[in-house]
Write a structure and sequence with these properties.
Layout lengths: L8 H15 L8 H11 L6 H12 L4 H22 L9 E2 L2 E2 L1 H5 L1 H20 L6 H15 L4 H10 L5 H26 L4 H28 L10 H4 L5 H5 L1 H18 L8 H12 L3
Antiparallel strand pairs: 1-2
The structure holds geranylgeranyl diphosphate.
Length: 292
């Protein structure tokens, strides 16, 4: 198997988990149920790829790692919000996520809806109050995140996915770039903003993130068919839902090639940056090949 060990990954993962736990400790009283459902959804073994991407980019650009930690955590809140809502009966109607029952299966639909809303709201609150950053950086983070999850990003992607009736590659890549790529692009740009990088570097990392997100999603389609491991939902879930995927369009081998070419395109962009990019390159590969 690929040897893609990233030295900073374990300490970063520990910092992310520790901070998320500290931000959302167990509560009693009238917020108890909501807090339990939030903790159930957020603190349950996600790979934290978006947060890791933010921290790795910030490190690569020479930023203060403590400045990037809250932005990194806010990305995991948004990602979890999208998963909780995506699993609802009115969306993908999934019973399992990260190997256990989905939020609505445990807490009911209304609480799951509110849990997603809460994660979304608290993510922006965290950014508004993020320490070690200037007011301008906080505003940039909020602007980037809102534009990448709204109707020019994640929410648009989900809507296109729910509505799409044609089965062509162009539609599929538009869905993936918005639904998956936008938050990954925001994650890479978050690292750049936290490190105080100039606009051209932010833009380059944003484009890198979109392409990485597309590679990640194409590989997701491949792994849905080929993985022996039980992943987020269930194996063959795309097939069972009769969804158009890169595999149904291109076949497994071509789709895998497409994911690898797209990843190579993303990595090529990094050639325009100074500094040591090794850890970011390894993380991007781990991202696409879903290594823990
Ligand atoms: C409902 C507002 C709303 C948006 C839904 C992003 C999205 C749009 C839904 C999420 C479901 C989904 C299948 C997204 C595609 C991206 C993907 C493969 C997510 C899983 O990401 P991982 O592998 O998950 O990083 P972990 O569990 O490791 O965090």
């Amino acid at each position: 198997m690929l040897d893609l060990l990233v030295p900073s990954l374990t300490p970063f993962l520990e910092q992310i988990e520790h901070k998320l736990n500290k931000l959302f400790p167990p509560l009693t009283g009238n917020t108890q149920v909501l807090r339990e459902s939030l903790r159930y959804s957020l603190l349950n073994g996600g790979k934290r790829l978006r947060a890791l991407l933010c921290l790795t980019v910030a490190k690569m650009l020479g930023g203060d790692p403590s400045a990037a930690l809250i932005p990194a955590c806010s990305l995991e809140l948004i990602h979890t919000y999208s998963l909780v809502h995506d699993d609802l009966p009115c969306m993908d109607d999934d019973d399992y996520r990260r190997g256990r029952l989905t939020c609505h299966k445990v807490y009911g639909e209304a609480t799951a809806l509110l849990t997603g809303d809460l994660l979304l709201t608290r993510a922006f609150e965290l950014l508004a109050k993020a320490p070690h950053l200037t007011a301008e950086q906080r505003l940039s983070l909020i602007t980037v995140l809102s534009s990448h999850i709204g109707d020019r990003g994640l929410i648009l992607g989900q809507d296109l996915d729910l509505r799409s009736t044609d089965h062509i590659e162009e539609t599929l890549s538009e869905i993936h770039l918005n639904k998956t790529g936008a938050l990954i692009a925001a994650s890479a740009e978050f690292g750049a903003i936290s490190a105080g990088a100039p606009p051209d570097v932010r833009t380059l990392l944003n484009h890198f993130g979109f392409e990485l997100g597309l590679a990640f999603q194409i590989m997701d389609d491949v792994l849905d068919i080929t993985s022996t491991e039980k992943r987020g939902g269930s194996r063959y879930s795309d097939l069972a839902n009769q969804k158009t995927t890169y595999v149904t369009l291109l076949g497994v081998e071509e789709a895998k090639l497409k994911a690898e070419e797209t990843l190579a395109g993303a990595l090529d962009r990094l050639g325009q940056l100074d500094g040591n990019k090794e850890e970011l390159i390894l993380l991007a590969k781990r991202f696409v090949y879903r290594l823990k």
